[in-house]
Each structure stands twice: as C-alpha cells, then as structure tokens.
Write a sequence for this structure.
C-alpha cells in the first residue's frame, strides 16, 4: 500500500515537473502540423516528431522551474512544484532538463532533419532566455513568448515535407498564439496580487481584472475566427469534420460571450474560461488530427 502511494506521489511530482497537460498539447500541435500537410509521412517519423517536441516542451518546463524555484515557492499555485518545495535539488533539475532537452533535439534531428531540430532549439532558447527573464520586466512578456507556441505546428509541417512558403501552417501557428495569450492571462488573474509581490509584471497594471478579462475575450473571439478559416484553407477537408469545426467554433463563441456577460467574480469566470480554452483547443487539434488520419488511410 505504501509502495503504491509512493508511486502515485512520484507520478504526480513528475507531472508537475514537466507540466504534462501543456507538454501534451504542444506535442499534439506539432503532430497536427505534420498531418495537415496531407503528404505521406512514415509512422516512425510521426512518432519521433511527437516525442521530440514533447521532450523539448518538458525540458522547458524543468529549466523554467529551476530558474523560478524561489518565486514559485511564494505562490499558492506553484508552491507544490518539486523544485519549489525542495523535493528536487536544482542540480537534479538541471540534469533532468538536459537529458530531456538533448533527447528531444536528438530525436528531431535523427528523424526529421536539421531545420526542425534548429527550430526546436530556437523555441527552447527563446522561452528560457527571453520570455522567462522578461516576465520580471514587462507585461509584454506574454506577447514576447508567443513564438514558443507558434513554432511547434510549423516544425511539424516542415518535418512532413510541407512547403515552407505555404501559408497554411501560419494559420495553425496563429491559432496557437491566439490561444496562448488569453490562456496565460486567465491563469494569472487569480494570482495577480502574489505575482506583483514577487516582482512579476506579466499583467498590465493599468488594466483592472474586468478589463483584462474583456480583452481576453477578444483574443478568444480571434481564435474562434481563425478556427473558421481551417475548412476553406483545406486544413480540414472532410465535409463532416468541416461542419464539426464550424459548429464547435460558433458554439464556443456563444458560450464564452455568455460567460463574459455574466461576470461577477473574476476568479471564477477566469477559471471557467481557462478550462473551456483547454477543451476547445484539444477538440480543434483532435479534429484536424482525425481529418489527417482519415485522409491518410482512406485516399
């Protein structure tokens, strides 16, 4: 019994260390970019692409927690992370991060080539050397961090042999960017006071919580509009799935508008919208993946 409990504790700590849901979402966006090309690509390459991006995303999370272990320890939302609570030493964290990052880069290089591996390295470096330090300097850090979300689907597109001048992967990248910004704001809003106290400037001081919630809603509507571009851009080709994507986008726009108008408690509304954003992006990416798989094995 104790062994089972200890195993579950270790798995929970590992999930927090690599931010499992986010790393999975990033990997799926890269796989989506590959399948959206409609080109034949081997299963091994798809597998390697997915794991390579997942490992790089996990490495970013570990390195980020090494960098921010002291501030993480001061916030309720992050104080249970392994490095923040002292369950892992910074040296151990660095070793894990190096192993994950080098494994991800090696996997991408071996299976998909130099260009994708370099883009993976650029994305990782940008996250750690630009975005993370900038959070202490300016609220524009959230915007500056968007290349980290935009690059994975482009990496997937290039890994599959897609035309680098084709505008379609940029649509996928835009979808990720328009998801990334409100996702972070909605995550950070309940912690606004704590973030200010520890020196993070990720939320604009001149905007109230309600104003930032309203601006987040406009970003969400932009993401919905981008979703509606997926069928005409032939990123979703099957008629049934095209209708599903359109219905999902319209339904989500109506739901978020309803939630926004009934705002009374900002923290509660931000939590609902953030969960909705995760589900929405997962369903959209899942639909594109399903379309790519059906096209791949049907035609």
């Amino acid at each position: 019994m104790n062994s089972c409990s200890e195993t579950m504790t270790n798995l929970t700590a590992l999930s927090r260390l690599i931010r499992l849901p986010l790393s999975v979402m990033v990997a799926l966006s890269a796989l989506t970019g590959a399948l959206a090309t409609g080109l034949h690509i081997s299963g091994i390459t798809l597998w390697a692409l997915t794991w390579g991006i997942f490992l790089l995303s996990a490495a970013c999370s570990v390195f980020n927690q090494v960098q921010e272990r002291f501030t993480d320890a001061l916030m309720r939302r992050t104080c249970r992370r392994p490095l923040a609570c002292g369950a892992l030493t910074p040296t151990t964290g660095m070793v894990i991060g190096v192993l994950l990052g080098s494994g991800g880069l090696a996997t991408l290089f071996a299976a998909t080539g130099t260009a994708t591996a370099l883009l993976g390295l650029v994305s990782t470096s940008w996250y750690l050397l630009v975005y993370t330090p900038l959070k202490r300097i300016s609220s524009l850090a959230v915007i500056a961090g968007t290349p980290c979300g935009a690059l994975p689907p482009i990496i997937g597109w290039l890994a599959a042999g897609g035309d680098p001048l084709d505008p379609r992967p940029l649509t996928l990248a835009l979808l990720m960017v328009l998801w990334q910004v409100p996702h972070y704001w909605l995550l950070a809003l309940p912690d606004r006071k704590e973030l200010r106290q520890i020196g993070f400037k990720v939320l604009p001081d001149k905007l109230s919580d309600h104003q930032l919630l309203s601006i987040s809603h406009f970003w969400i509507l932009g993401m919905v509009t981008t979703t509606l571009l997926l069928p005409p851009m032939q990123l979703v080709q099957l008629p049934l799935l095209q209708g599903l994507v359109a219905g999902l986008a319209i339904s989500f726009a109506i739901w978020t508008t309803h939630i926004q108008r009934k705002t009374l408690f900002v923290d509660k509304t931000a939590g609902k919208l953030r969960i909705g954003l995760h589900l929405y992006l997962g369903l959209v990416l899942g639909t594109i993946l399903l379309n790519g798989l059906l096209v791949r094995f049907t035609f």
Q: What stands out?
A: The chain has 13 helices and no strands. The two ends are 51 Å apart (CA to CA).
